[in-house]
Design goal:
This protein starts with a strand and ends with a helix. The model has no long low-confidence stretch (mean pLDDT about 90). The strands form 2 sheets. The protein has an 8-stranded parallel barrel, surrounded by 4 helices. A two-stranded antiparallel sheet has the order 1-2. Helix 1 runs parallel beside helix 10. It has about 350 residues and is α/β, with parallel strands linked by helices. The chain is about 40% helix and about 10% strand. The protein is globular and about 55 Å long. Strand 4, helix 2 and strand 5 form a beta-alpha-beta unit.
């Protein structure tokens, strides 16, 4: 397994990262088999494990990872995330100092470790001052509870703002970004990846197999359908005819090159110079073995040019239902004046 520097942290990480969103009742409910997946990944050369407090519900994925790392902690760059809801209390989520200080203790306890190598904000938090978040994370770095900080799903403008605030306030800088990236969704090539390169951020990309569309199973005419869970969370993405047509075209060039579709997809995202590591999320040991088999795949320029003809650089074939949507787009009242406001403006003297 090839290794690469995680931005400018000095940490070396494998080209693949083991993602654990499938660990627990919403993916693989067998904790012992999940532990075996972790061990096989480490034996296969992966040295990064990415999890989150919300994965598996009630921190289940973190608990499984903690069990798997007993006796092997020093071999792993351990990454987890905060921000998602951990219960019904509105203050048990988000990026406030109040929650971050509590959330990190919960993750450390579930993981059974004394420090986290990469602690990441899972989602943007427009309602929280970024100085509040960076201040709390800077204190955790000083306390030795975390080694580096990162964010996930941030728009390019938010990445720049966070770097500026850190410099102006003398706070720790974010060192990594975790965006969505696959052949079918290349929008981050326009601004996010160049900005990450400019500031020396490591980039761990999630869903390089496009939530299973590029796994090779969901083909037109195959009779296979996406799982109920995927259809619940990403129906538009999983049933988009434009994406399904692109998958067929990509499958043809993969076959001509003697590659499986998932190996083509993973080799594509790791070919970008700004990408540090691709997060794979196998549900079974067999899925992991199949993905590891393509870890040394390198695409030549002709093949990359062929992919560019199917999905143009910097474009998304279609949206991803679970991707972050800024409040200004998600909430109509933030992008239009209310009826009362418009009426008041008409009545006001010029």
């Amino acid at each position: 397994m090839r290794t690469r520097p995680l931005g400018r942290t000095g940490i070396q990480v494998s080209a693949y990262t083991l993602g654990t969103m499938m660990f627990g009742p919403y993916g693989n409910p067998d904790p012992d088999e999940c532990v075996r997946i972790v061990h096989r990944a480490l034996d296969g050369g992966i040295n990064v494990i990415d999890t989150a407090d919300v994965y598996g519900g009630d921190g289940e994925a973190e608990k499984i990872v903690g069990k798997a790392l007993r006796g092997r902690r020093d071999d792993v760059v351990l990454a987890t995330k905060f921000n998602g809801p951990m219960g019904s209390d509105p203050n048990h989520r988000g990026s406030s100092r109040r929650w971050i200080v509590s959330a990190v203790e919960g993750s450390l306890r579930r993981l059974g470790v004394d420090h986290i190598d990469l602690y990441q904000a899972h989602h943007p938090e427009p309602g929280t001052d970024i100085e509040e978040t960076l201040g709390a994370l800077t204190d955790l770095l000083s306390a030795g509870k975390i080694r580096a900080i990162g964010h996930s799903n941030l728009p390019a403008s938010d990445i720049v703002e966070a770097q500026w605030v850190a410099e102006q306030r003398g706070l720790a800088r974010f060192r990594s970004e975790q965006p969505h990236y696959s052949i079918l969704n290349r929008g981050i090539e326009r601004e996010i990846l160049p900005v990450c390169e400019r500031y020396g951020l490591g980039v761990l990309v999630w869903s390089p197999l496009a939530m299973g569309l590029l796994a090779g199973r969901l083909r037109k005419g195959s009779g296979e359908t996406a799982s109920a869970g995927r259809l619940h969370w990403a129906r538009q993405h999983m049933t988009d005819e434009r994406k399904l047509d692109a998958v067929e075209a990509l499958a043809r060039i993969a076959e001509q090159a003697g590659l499986s579709l998932p190996h083509l997809a993973l080799a594509f995202v790791t070919a970008h110079p700004a990408v540090t590591s691709a997060i794979i999320g196998p549900r079974t040991p067999e899925q992991l073995d199949a993905l590891l088999a393509g870890a040394d795949t390198i695409l030549d320029d002709d093949l990359l040019d062929g992919i560019d003809e199917i999905v143009r650089p910097g474009t998304d074939v279609g949206p991803v239902d679970v991707a972050y949507v800024p409040p200004t787009l998600a909430r109509p009242e933030l992008r239009r004046r209310t009826t009362e406001t418009r009426a008041a403006r008409r009545q006001s003297p010029q």
